[in-house]
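Appendix B, example 12.
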Amino acid sequence: MTIEIKEKGTRQFYKEVVNVQTQYRQLLYRPQDKLRDNFTRYIFLTVAMVLIFLMNIYGGITASFNATKILVTVFSAAAAAATVVILLRMNKMVDGYLADDRPSVVTLDENGVEIEKVGSESVRLAWDNVAFVRSFVESTCFFSKDLSGIVLSVDNDYRKQIMEYIKSNNIDVQVVNVVNKVR
């Protein structure tokens, strides 16, 4: 079965794809887990670290600095910077996906599943390397068994076709039927 995807995904679809990729290992070991919104998590973590940093700076101005305050100040500044960098990289991934106008071709056959962007290399997962297939709110994803981190994501407009193909061809792959909103 071949599915030609000419339309670009939405920002929400690509944010979900990035959330799935950043939670790959957790979902690989516990496929039923809820998908968490890492964008919101990192925003809250950044704000918390900046607040701790600012409280230590303010406390140091009004009182004397000691080794503990200096250590907490440096740690909170480094943690805030790290979370900002991670958040910016996640947003850059979403923007990169959105900027790519090339159509995709998804192929499901007796050997596995393959996604190819027109004009670039394709990514293929053999059925014996697919840990499970799971549908999320915006996407249906194929997770690789090995720890390569490969997750092939397809817009949920094609979920019914994919599930029918897997069922009608008796493909031996676990299908996880948990569709939950990102929280």
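The mean pLDDT is 88. The beta strands are 2-5, 104-108, 112-117, 122-126, 130-135, 139-144, 151-155, 174-176.
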